[in-house]
Amino acid sequence: MAGDLTDQEWVRLAPLLPSMAPQRGGRWRDHRQVINGILWRMENGAKWDQVPDRY
């Protein structure tokens, strides 16, 4: 989608994020999906409850 991280950007960013391996206390959401949601919110100036469900 427009504004989402490109594959090239994701390749550079992904190694800097915590492991997606299951750990005690719950499972991580997909990091790329969360970051794209944050970027969408910043770009659109929306409130958190207005962020589309896909994020």
From TrEMBL:
<dbReference type="InterPro" id="IPR052909">
    <property type="entry name" value="Transposase_6_like"/>
</dbReference>
<feature type="domain" description="Insertion element IS402-like">
    <location>
        <begin position="5"/>
        <end position="55"/>
    </location>
</feature>
<dbReference type="Pfam" id="PF13340">
    <property type="entry name" value="DUF4096"/>
</dbReference>
<dbReference type="InterPro" id="IPR025161">
    <property type="entry name" value="IS402-like_dom"/>
</dbReference>
<protein>
    <recommendedName>
        <fullName>Insertion element IS402-like domain-containing protein</fullName>
    </recommendedName>
</protein>
